[in-house]
Amino acid sequence: MNMQLGSAPGASVLSCKGLSARYHRVTVVSGVDLSLRAGEMLAVLGSNGAGKSSMLQAIAGVVRGGGEINVNGRSLGGMSAHKRALHGLSLVPEQRRNIFPTMTVRENIDIGLALLPASEREAQRAFIIDLFPILQTRETAMAGMLSGGEQQMLAIGLALGRKPAVLALDEPSQGLAPAVFDILAAAFDRLKKGGLALLLAEQNVPFAARIVDRYVVLSHGHIVRSGDRADLDDPQRIAEAFLGTGRG
Amino acid sequence: MYELVEYLLRGALLGITYGLLAFPVSLLFSTTGSVDVALGAYAVLAVAVAYSIGGPVGILAAILATVFASFVVGIISLRLNRPGAVDHVTAVLGTFGLAMFLESLILSVFGTNPMIRQPFDTFWNIGGIRISPQTGINAAVCLVILTALFVVLRKTPFGRSMRASAANPVGASLNGIPVRQIWFATYLLGGLLAGVAGVLILYTTGADYSSAFTLTIWGFGSAIIFGMNSPLRGFAGGLIIGMVQALCSGYLPGAWATAIPLVVIFVVLSMGRMNQIVSTGGRV
Questions:
Q1: B179 → closest Cβ in A82, A101, A158
Q2: Which of A107, A154, B124, B203 could join A103 via S-S bond, C-beta 3.0 to 4.6 A?
Q3: What percent of chain A has pLDDT over 70?
Q4: Closest residue of B to A59, CA-based?
Q5: Do A107 and B160 count as a contact with CB atoms less than 8 A apart?
Q6: Nearest-neighbour CA in chain B from A113: distance (Å)
Q7: Does B170 sit within 8 Å of A62, measured CB to CB?
Q8: For A30-78, what is each residue's pLDDT tens digit?
Q9: Predicted pLDDT of residue A49
Q10: pTM metric for this prediction
């Protein structure tokens, strides 16, 4: 079932229409429509295998897909992943697969900053370090030697390096200590206030409920439910949202 | 003792050309995860072109020819591979086919005669060891190339992108790095280095149409000794192979002189060296 989300006030930063994702001939996501405003965070909820990661990867161009994808009015459909990154789309994949384990933290951040004009790099580096001060402390460490939480912060810092318009995050809370949740939640809140549009694929509904503005539930590759954050404050509704049951 | 030093020195100088072939083997493997079996054929192509034209123009034409050959392989690779979805077997078979084609082409055009040029008829005497000035040129060329490559890989944005593509191709794409173009450039760099190696071989030991796979084997063998993922260490492996060859030539009967270095490569492979160093991807 396709579900058109309610149109959000203000200019849409990300809009997807008829989005699909496929592996060879197997289509795992289809007919997804969604939009995202600047300063807004949208959660894509769903169980394992629902298609959340595939959807985000199709938006980022890592997985083959179809449909319209627009960022700030520019169509990204048909572009390769690296060109989408050039046009304002950043993905932090599941298990921090955007980082370079055999390179230092500083080298990783340098890669993220490489797409910015040279005159803006130091300011953006300072912003990232301010967001996650631990990255400065661990600057000379190999990324692969960091703890899971530190790697997640580096992965997000790396993705922020080029000042994206949209930051997509695939299960950023996965495998992390609860203490790290607070750091991530504070960082996401700050990024939202800075006008960044955030798209969060998450199984951890309580974590998502802390930080998102709206949510959609994905089941078998289709959006089956959507709503506001308030729905997620109710444990019953959380269960319904996670399972994609109850009222739509 | 004097004899041993002489063999080691001659071997190291011989190993320079193997090192130049090992460097692209390692670079390509660490960047793309693939192997270009045609590297030896590029070198022989360079030998043939430089031999037939001669002089600086011949050297330039030789290197352009090998870069063009690697361009063809790069195109094939681009057609087959993208980050997250690679087909190494088909790509390697493609380079094998190109190597066969180049060998046949060289046989048809240049025949079976050995191709060698030796511009120097004087020798340097270093501590009683007679060394051709050509080996000095080889060493100098090699030093310049290695220094340039080290600077490019370690100090430039292109080198950083190349190392990032090697360490994590999907991550590199997500960070705006054009991974497939980087892979393509790596193939061209391999062709360039093989061309230089071919020119040095022409002026040192010479080659004939059938030398291609032997050179590929020495280049590959050199690359695996200290790790397929480290181009500079791959070069050092070339020096080792050259020294092993020289020692075998000096101390063993003829047939063993060829066999023993191959046995060394086999032993290194059977020790699982290739697998041990996979995790160092992206380092030089």
A1: A82
A2: A107
A3: 91
A4: B174
A5: yes
A6: 9
A7: yes
A8: 899 999 999 999 999 988 888 999 999 999 998 988 899 999 989 998 8
A9: 86
A10: 0.79
Residues of chain B contacting residue A88, judged by C-beta atoms under 8 Å apart: none
Q: Taking CB atoms and an 8 Å limit, are A111 and B177 in contact across chains?
A: yes
Q: For residue A109, what is the nearest residue in chain B, using CA coordinates? A: B175
Q: Mark the ranges of chain B whose per-residue pLDDT is less than 70.
A: 82-86, 227, 229, 272-284
**C-beta atoms of A102 and B177 within 8 A:** no
CA nearest to B236, candidates B244, B249, B225, B220 = B225
pLDDT digits (tens, 9 = 90+) for A97-135: 899 998 999 999 999 999 899 999 999 999 999 999 999
Are B13 and B136 in contact by the 8 Å Cβ rule? The answer is no
CA dist A34 → A17, A39, A60, A188, B174 (Å): 7, 15, 15, 20, 21
- Chain A nearest CA to B176, separation (Å): 4
Buried-state track A50-83, b at ≥16 Cβ within 10 A, e below 16: bbbbbbbbbbbbbbbbbbebbbbeeebeebbbbe
Tokens of B172: 């590199």
How distant is the Cα of B180 from the closest Cα of chain A, in angstroms? Answer: 10
DSSP code of residue B82: B
Rg of chain A on CA atoms, in Å: 17
CA atoms within 13 A on the CB side of B180: 17
Q: Rounded to 5 degrees, what are φ and ψ at A170? A: -100, 105
The verdict on a CB contact (< 8 Å) between B174 and A102 is: no
Q: Counting beta carbons within 10 angstroms of the beta carbon of residue B157, is it exposed (0 to 12), middle (13 to 18) or buried (19 or more)?
A: exposed
Per DSSP, A142 falls in state: B
Q: How far is B80 from chain A (nearest CA, A)?
A: 14
pLDDT at position A235: 67
Residue-wise pLDDT for A65-96, tens only, equals: 889 999 998 999 889 999 999 999 999 998 88
A63 and A23 Cβ atoms separated by less than 8 Å: yes
Residue A225 has what pLDDT? 84
Structure tokens at B198: 């071919």
Is B169 in contact with B162 (CB distance < 8 Å)?
no
ipTM: 0.86
Distance between CA atoms of residues B29 and A203, nearest Å? 37
* One-letter-per-residue 3-state SS of A196-222: CEEEEEECCHHHHHHHCCEEEEEECCE
Q: How far is it, in rounded angstroms, from Cα A34 to Cα B201?
A: 62
Q: Encoding tokens for residue A96?
A: 């921090």
DSSP letters spanning A73-111: TEE-TT--HHHHHHTTEEEE-GGGTTS-TTSBHHHHHHH
